[in-house]
Amino acid sequence: MEKVSIIIPFYNCAYVDRAIKCALAQTYENIEVIVVNDGSKVNEEKLTPFLNKVRYIKKGNGGTGSALNTGIRAATGKYFSWLSSDDLYRPDKVEKQLNFMKQHQASVSYSNYVLIDENDKPKSGNVGVSFPNRLQFYKTLKAGCPINGCTVMMKMDIFQEVGLFDESLSYAQDYDLWLRVVQKYDFHYVEEPLVFYRVHGEMGTKKHATDIPREIQLVRNRYRKSILDLILRETTP
Fold it and tell me: Whose CA, among 62, 76, 167, 224, lies 20 to 30 Å from 69?
C-alpha cells in the first residue's frame, strides 16, 4: 500500500483548517499530510488543533512554488498530491485517484472538479476539461493551463527527472511544471470530480488578475518549441 504525500502550502488563508480536516479524513489510510507555513502573518492559530496529526514545516515567505518544493523535499510518499489551503478534497479523492492510476498504469493524472463558495456550497459542477486525444491536449496546453493543480496526483520520482516547481514564478509555477512533465509522461484524466475549488474574494486568481497573464505568456514562450514538437509528433504520419 503505497504512501501518498498530501502537501498543503499555507499563507494567511482563513480556510486552512477545512483543508487540513479533509486531508486527514481521506478514506485511503497510508497518507502523510505536510503543511508548509510560508511565512504567514495571520490565521496561524487555525493550525494548532492539527499539529500532532500532520508534518508541520514553518519557513520564511517564498511563494507557492517554494512552499511546495519544501514539502516535496520532506515527503516520504511514493505519490505527490497538492491541496491548496482554500480548497477541499472529496473524502475518497486519494483512494479513487490512486486506484485509477494503477488501473491505467499512469504516472500522472488529474481530475474533474467542482466550484464551491465561501461556505462550501457548490456553485457549479464538472468544470474540469477532458480531451479526446493527445493532440487536442497539447494544443490546449500550448495556449494555457487547462489543469487544476489540486486535482493532480503523480509519482514523486518524476521530480527527479524534470525538476521541482520554478520558485521564480509567482503564479504559473504549476503550468511551468506540467509543460516539463508532458515531455515525458501522458496526463490521464479522471472523469469523476474529486476536488472542490473555492471561489472567494481573496483567491490569488482574483487578486493578481493583471499579473497572471503576463507570467503565463512568459512560460508559454519558454516552452514554445518543445510543445510544438509534441504537436508535430502527433500530426506526422
Answer: 224
Least Cα distance to 85 among 51, 47, 55, 126 occurs for 47
Predicted model pTM: 0.96
Q: Give the closest residue to 182 by CA, choosing from 226, 237, 221, 234.
A: 226
* Grid coordinates given for 79: 505519490
Spatial separation of the C-alpha atoms in residues 60 and 28, rounded to whole Å:
32
| Rounded Cα gap, residues 136 and 143, in angstroms | 11
Question: 107: which DSSP letter?
Answer: S
User: Residue 31's domain spans which residues?
Assistant: 4-235
43 backbone φψ class: left, alpha, beta (φ>0; ψ -120 to 50): left
209 pLDDT higher than 80: no
The H helix count followed by the E strand count for the chain is: 9, 9
DSSP string for residues in 202-227: T-HHHHTTTTHHHHHHHHHHHTHHHH
Contacts of 232 (CB under 8 A, 6+ apart): none
Query: Any idea of the CA torsion for 122, 174, 192, 130, to the nearest 10 degrees?
Result: 110
Q: What share of the chain is helix, strand, coil (3-state, %, to 5)?
A: 40, 20, 40
Strand, coil or helix: 88: strand
User: How confident is the model over 80-130, as pLDDT tens digits?
Assistant: 999 999 999 999 999 999 999 999 999 999 999 999 999 999 998 899 999
> What is the CATH number for 176?
3.90.550.10
